[in-house]
Amino acid sequence: MSGGFFDTLWTVLLSTVRDVAPIVAVLAFFQVLVLRRRLPHARRMIVGFSFVLVGLALFLIGLEQALFPIGETMARQLTDPEMLGTLGIEGEVDWRNYWLVYLFAAAIGFATTVAEPALIAVSVKAEEVSGGAIRSWGLRFAVAVGVAVGVSLGCFRIVTGTPLPWYIIAAYLVVIVQTFQSSRTIIPLAYDSGGVTTSTVTVPVVAALGLGLAASIPGRSPLIDGFGLIAFASVFPIITVLGYTMATSYANRWKNRKAQRGSEL
Amino acid sequence: MPPTIITLARQTERPVVRRLARHVGGALHRILLSLRDLAPIILVIAFFQIVVLQQPFPNFWGVMAGLLCVVGGLSLFMQGLEYGLFPLGETLAQGFASKRSLTALLSFAFCLGFGATVAEPALIAIAQEAAEVASRGAAIADTAEARDSYAFNLRMVVALSVGAAVLLGVLRILKGWPIHRLIIGGYLMVTLMTLFAPPEIVGIAYDSGGVTTSTMTVPLVTALGVGLATTIRGRNPLIDGFGIIALASLTPMCFVMAYGIIVA
């Protein structure tokens, strides 16, 4: 068993070297040949590079062993006919029976996003720059709600088997309309918040959930219906963040007007 | 008086011990950070398993061992990035931002996006999974080589697209184009290409947009964007520095669908 583990580690390590080599080559090339500077702290860098290699190899093994199986198992157990309580008519899928799946998807989307370090950093910065008009926790909450709604709706789509582009393009239309209603300073931040939400740990679990769902619901193909959850999770936060900032700016305007009226009286 | 072994040891031992302590402290900190990343997932799953499903979890200890690998692996990976790649990437970004050569800056931008994405763990994971699904669905041959080449091509296409996105994002910062025009143009492109792309690539293409921007790419690319916006006069780090990530999660959708159209 342990011999097997070290064999796997060795093969994964070799392929990891191939994966990481390009970025190291790029950075070293530009540093030494284009900017003509020596590599700073060469020894520290070599230590860091070997950490990256071993760490990535271990992560990929853990991915196969844990993260993918977790997503698949949860999808299978949540869609188990016995669990659902009702055995629907053969070939007919009633989307209302799968409410546990939507609940699980929303919970995992919310929980993984609210604690995401990249998001915390960005939202603290946003509060600073906006002079307190945008609250750090408010932004985090908005993004987390966006991911929760997105993943949950994505599961609904897999259950019903409706085409993915309809949902995503509709979401784009909402984003475009909101963009023209929002202040210019928040737009880049809102657009970026869609991308940063999906962390390295979340992506495999959510992807496996979608694929497992498509595999266990009759009439769905993993290839056509299984993907798309991550796309949902990266569009919906844009909508909720833009919505949140619009709401706060309306609220501020209303408060100001009220204060003005108060001072007049 | 010649230095005795004791004085030598006293001179060398202290920094070594201190350095060792710092390393151990850093490693512990990393492990705590990785655990924090993982904790919400474990909590949600534990809640559903214990309260809602009440079913035995298959291969429980195997999964636990795998989770240990994930925690250890992520900790080492992040610590390594902090030691080696991030400082180098940041000094490079600042160096190129202050250098006046446009070609050097643009080629660096492209290579940075490409190189960082190729090594992105989340992308490696998704590409493998996509290859397996494709071979089970008989879209490609059911051999290890076919799967490997499918996963490899997918990763290359996505990496190329992120390279293009970073290049475009840097151009945007230099020219001061408003980000929403680029993004809305990108949305239109995605919509148009969806009409022509084969349906089995659409899901993978849409997902690859969100996947590209995690552990590896975000810090490097953000450092480049904010560094540029700070050094160029008349640019605001908040308005112009952000936005490259948004571009980098749009272009992969277009490129992967284009790849699907060409291959099919």
Describe the structure.
The complex is a heterodimer of chains A (265) and B (264). Chain A is 79% helix and 0% strand. Chain A has helices at residues 2-34, 42-78, 81-84, 99-114, 117-129, 136-160, 164-179, 187-196, 202-216, 222-226, 229-264. In chain A, helix 1 packs across helix 2 (42-78), helix 6 (136-160) runs parallel beside helix 9 and helix 6 (136-160) packs across helix 11 (229-264). Chain B has 264 residues and is mainly alpha-helical. The termini of chain B are far apart. The model of chain B is unreliable at 1-6 (pLDDT under 50). Chains A and B meet through helix 1, helix 2, helix 4, helix 5 and helix 7 of A and helix 1, helix 2, helix 3, helix 4 and helix 6 of B.
Instruction: Give the helix proportion of chain A (percent range).
Output: over 70%
**Number of helices, counting only DSSP H or I runs of 4 residues or more of chain A:** 11
Residue windows where pLDDT falls under 50 for at least 5 positions of chain B? 1-6
Overall pLDDT score of chain B: 80
Helix content of chain B: over 70%
Q: How does the overall form of chain B come out from the CA principal axes?
A: globular
The first-to-last residue Cα distance of chain A is: 82 Å
First-to-last CA distance of chain B: 82 Å
Low-pLDDT residue intervals, each spanning 5 or more residues of chain A: none
Shape verdict of chain A:
flat
Compute the number of strand runs of chain A: 0
Structural class of chain A: mainly alpha
By oligomeric state, this entry counts as heterodimer
| Structural classification of chain B | mainly alpha
For the sheet with most strands of chain B, the description reads:
none
The count of β-strands of chain B is 0
Name the largest protein-protein interface in this structure: A-B, 106 and 105 residues
Continuous helix count of chain B:
11
Write the layout of secondary structure elements.
The complex is a heterodimer of chains A (265) and B (264).
Chain A: H1 2-34, H2 42-78, H3 81-84, H4 99-114, H5 117-129, H6 136-160, H7 164-179, H8 187-196, H9 202-216, H10 222-226, H11 229-264
Chain B: H1 5-53, H2 60-98, H3 102-118, H4 121-136, H5 144-175, H6 179-196, H7 199-211, H8 217-231, H9 237-241, H10 244-248, H11 251-263
Helix pairs in contact in B: 1-2, 2-8, 3-5, 3-8, 4-5, 5-8, 5-11, 6-11, 7-11
